[in-house]
Specification:
10-stranded parallel sheet; globular; 12 strands; single chain; TIM Barrel; alpha/beta
């Protein structure tokens, strides 16, 4: 059964493509101390743009996070089990983390982006093919997480010999699988076949549509969507002045101002060239850039009221400690969760 918090969780989005892993552990521990309830950790082989400057291995980092924190729930937001990793390897990694931090770890799975996955130099398929690959990969992972002997010798994209995982989570704390999606087909499929879903921040009407499709899929499979976690990752830019907040967005997160799918762009250098076209107005309706914490709080409250169980916030600037302390006092403490 998937983990479901008693009330909505406000989580910290750990941008491993943007910060040194040790620095991010310090930020995450501070976040836990100041009232954040979870962490969503980015799984990146490359940063979006060179200025972000990092690409720490998320599975090593999450192992350290689990050991250094006490109550935070956490997971990758998200791992692709189709290219860099074979699904069986993802299952092994997830089972190990679940066994070490029972009840705290969840597995986020997505269809992948060329920025991270093309490093294997394989052909890069169309989005609908990547969706089918993800669905098949999740089937393999689900088989292996049971601890039973499993095989996969008739797959379209993957093969696996008869095998089992020997180290698995406690039966009372299985690893839930959450599917990342920004579209209706995957959202409905996630509701029917997985334990929850993850989506990035978007307009209210789009989010309502995705929640509706997820719930539709869950009910069609005989499940209660109210008991299935709905996670959202929210990018924002906060600083003490509007000018600083805008500068942080343009310098550190120009990808947030690119209003098009990014799954086929292959290198940080390509993103940097596109970033030259990003202007402050490019973020309109895509990301709040403001020194006013009340403005950020109002948006998050709206998302909580919409039905999201976990909202993981990513302040895109390098002012993380300052942000965590201010956000704890001025947002988390005032939210109705």
């Amino acid at each position: 059964m998937a983990y479901l918090p008693a009330m909505a969780i406000i989580g910290y989005a750990a941008a491993l493509e943007q910060f040194h892993p040790t620095e991010l552990l310090d930020h995450s521990r501070l976040a836990e101390d100041l009232g954040f309830g979870g962490v969503m950790a980015a799984d990146h082989f490359q940063p979006w743009v060179p200025k972000q400057g990092h690409n720490a291995f998320v599975w090593s980092w999450m192992a350290a996070l689990g050991a250094l924190t006490k109550t935070l729930t956490f997971g990758p937001g998200v791992t692709c089990a189709s290219f860099r990793y074979h699904p069986a390897v993802v299952a092994q990694a997830a089972a190990t983390q679940g066994a070490m931090t029972p009840g705290r770890f969840w597995l986020g799975i997505g269809t992948g982006e060329a920025l991270n996955e093309h490093v294997m130099a394989a052909a890069w398929p169309e989005p609908h093919v990547r969706l089918k690959m993800m669905q098949e990969a999740i089937g393999i992972i689900q088989k292996l997480l049971t601890g039973e002997v499993a095989r996969h010798d008739d797959g379209r994209f993957f093969k696996m010999e008869r095998v089992r995982l020997w180290t698995v989570p406690d039966a009372h704390h299985p690893v839930p699988i959450y599917v990342a999606t920004a579209g209706p087909i995957a959202a409905r499929w996630a509701g029917a076949h997985c334990d929850g879903f993850i989506t990035p921040g978007a307009g209210v009407e789009k989010l309502k549509m995705l929640l509706g499709k997820f719930e539709e899929g869950a009910r069609a499979a005989g499940k209660d969507p109210a008991k299935m976690p709905k996670l959202l990752q929210l990018h924002m830019s906060w600083a003490k002045t509007k000018h600083e907040a805008v500068e942080y967005a343009l310098d550190q997160w120009p990808n947030g101002g690119m209003p098009f799918p990014k799954g086929d762009i292959r290198t940080p250098e390509d993103f940097a060239e596109i970033a030259k076209l990003v202007r402050p107005e490019s973020y309109k309706h895509r990301m709040i850039i403001s020194p006013d914490m009340d403005e950020h709080r109002e948006q998050i409250q709206q998302l909580v009221d919409l039905g999201f169980d976990e909202i993981h916030v990513h302040n895109v600037g390098r002012n993380q400690k300052e942000f965590i302390e201010a956000f704890s006092r001025q947002v988390i403490a005032k939210l109705k969760l």
